Amino acid sequence: MRSLNPVDLYEINDLLTDEERMIRDTVARFVDEKALPLIPQCFDEGRFPSELIPEIAELGLLGSSLEGYGCAGLNAVSYGLICQELERGDSGLRSFVSVQSSLCMYPIHAFGSEEQKERWLPEMAAGKVIGCFGLTEPHGGSDPSNMKTHARRDGDDWILNGAKMWITNGSIADIAIVWARTDDGVQGFIVEKDFDGFEARDIHAKMSLRASVTSELYFDNVRVPDANRLPGVKGLKGPLSCLSQARYGITWGPIGAAIACLSETLDYCQERELFGRPVAATQSAQIKMADMARRITAAQLMSWRLGKLKDEGRVHPTQISLAKWNNVRMAMDIARECRDLLGGSGITLEYSPIRHMLNLESVITYEGTETVHQLVVGRELTGHNAF
């Protein structure tokens, strides 16, 4: 009887195409060789490893699922695998790529003018222009319809006022995709970092996503040319469609975090001896790790199927919500159990579970809290909106 891969019990690897496996393995090597040697120190110091951006871009990971304009045009499963491997390194790496690709490049690609696409997308794919996404506001993020940031028309320009909060990449971004109320509904604007009245301030003293840049954005009578308005969409459909793109990647990312935690804990429990035998030989440890493998397997199958539906153009936002809810909760619970099995060693950055555990406290909140996604699924089941 053949042995199974502990983190691929249902042999998902066999469901992947040769190209998908090659992409996953390429990103995995980058994470192992370049990212993981840096990440624990970056997390400890509270800094994003910006020195990795050129290689991330060179690998074609920025805007990887978009067609043209210097982008790789990969399928949804490939993009998911990229997110999985990046978050196996750290949620901050996956967040950086997710924001650049799904929240900034995607709206320009989907809703921008041809001039905007030609101007920004090739430079963003090359990592020479970094973007951030301004939707969440200081008074709350789960209800974007309560948006306070507004823009009014002034000749050929718009005057933008307001604030955005919890913005990944904010202070390192060259442009911000900002959503604001107008007299003609919610619209998106490309705000350049040198526009007068625009300021990005870093949020400090974070206990989560420490290897990521998180900022506040402020707009004080910022004059934005109409040429920087995204002409292809009006209303909340614009930002919500961006969030669906990003949430899809998030369904894969926590699988990587969970795999990192379980792999490390398996090795530790084989080597660590208590009461004359390895921890791995005890019933309690085996039951915990078997449950982790069960939950990882379910998440892998869910995201793989979701990717297939996305590639077929049949994915439904509720399906994304179900996977985001399930997979982030799965990874968070596994990280906590692994931290426990590691004992005292589990509270140090020598091992990854506590870092993943802390990061996942953010991942379960952003791009729709767990409760929001539960209510999305509940609405689909019952036909009643309980928001």
Question: Can you walk me through this structure?
Answer:
This protein is 49% helix and 14% strand. By secondary structure, it is an alpha+beta fold. It has 3 domains: 12-125, Acyl-CoA dehydrogenase/oxidase, N-terminal domain (Butyryl-Coa Dehydrogenase, subunit A, domain 1); 131-228, Butyryl-CoA Dehydrogenase, subunit A, domain 2 (Beta Barrel), CATH 2.40.110.10; 237-382, Butyryl-CoA Dehydrogenase, subunit A, domain 3, CATH 1.20.140.10. It is globular and about 80 Å long. The model has no long low-confidence stretch (mean pLDDT 97).
Q: Assign the structural class, choosing from mainly alpha, mainly beta, alpha/beta, alpha+beta, or little secondary structure.
A: alpha+beta
The gross shape turns out to be globular
Q: How many discrete structural domains? A: 3
What would you call the quaternary organization? Answer: single chain
The termini sit apart by 51 Å
